Amino acid sequence: MSTKKLSPHETWQHAHHFPSAGVQAESSKLGMWIFILTEILIFGALFCTYAIYRYVHPEMFHMAHKELNVTVGLTNTIVLIFSSFTMALAVRSAQIGHKAQTAWLLTITIACAFVFLGIKSWEYSHKYAHGLFPGQESFNNHPLKLFFVVYFLLTGLHGIHILIGIGLLVWMVIKTLKGTMGPRYFSPIENVGLYWHLVDLIWIYLFPVLYLLG
Amino acid sequence: MNNTQSDTHGHEPLPLKIYFGVFAALIAMSFLTVYVASVNFGHWNTAVAIAIATFKASLVALFFMHLWYDNKMNLLVLVVAVFFVVVLFFPIFLDVGTRGLSGPGLVNH
Lengths: 214, 109
Description:
Chain A is mainly α. Helices cover 79% and strands 0% of the residues of chain A.
């Protein structure tokens, strides 16, 4: 008779200051939601900046949004929505203990994130070629300057969030492959999932506001 | 022994068709929002675009982020966040909008 060595997700014990594992999981999720609240406030303030500048310079914003390629923006939107889909499936997969499937779904999510960033950098390089990049000489007195200040602020901060998300997702892949995620304990993947959906949520508003409103 | 994180509210994994359904709806809405942008609703353009975006965001929040099935406190946190963004926007719009910075009849613009 041999004692099978249980994997971490089968023996995981909750922290002692929580009455149960369930309470610990709920607490960590609520903590992530409160963080999401702060993120919504930050981007809310940036969208407000957009609204004010747009109100005061309607023709500039009308002209400027034509510099943005709607097809490229729509492609990025679909990429990010798909990554949210695979992320949600990954959390579900961790919940039912399918280790390989979880790792694959997380990897696809990471791949989508890279595709998004690739497309975004292509767009940025296109703006640079047209003298529309902050810091360029041609940008300083450009008639569309205000719009693009807001554009780079919003999409730049969003891009940084994607980079951070990639880091978190890679960490989750490592944890999954180590076997520490499973039905008993999948909070980290669940909370990283919430973060990733937030990044998608922000883009869901960024796309129409920047690319479509004219 | 039975100490799993699903203990507090018997969190069963959702059926796959919900994920696929929400994904399909999100993609459809994305194409819709592009199409709708080519139709001129006049003053309502912004409202229509934001409305479609909000519908998409609600799908992501309620289903992908599980708020429909979760402890309502999490939903409350999201609602509070949105409320305070509205609190930010509203007085600013009242302020900037009544300064005479935009609109017909302005000489230097």
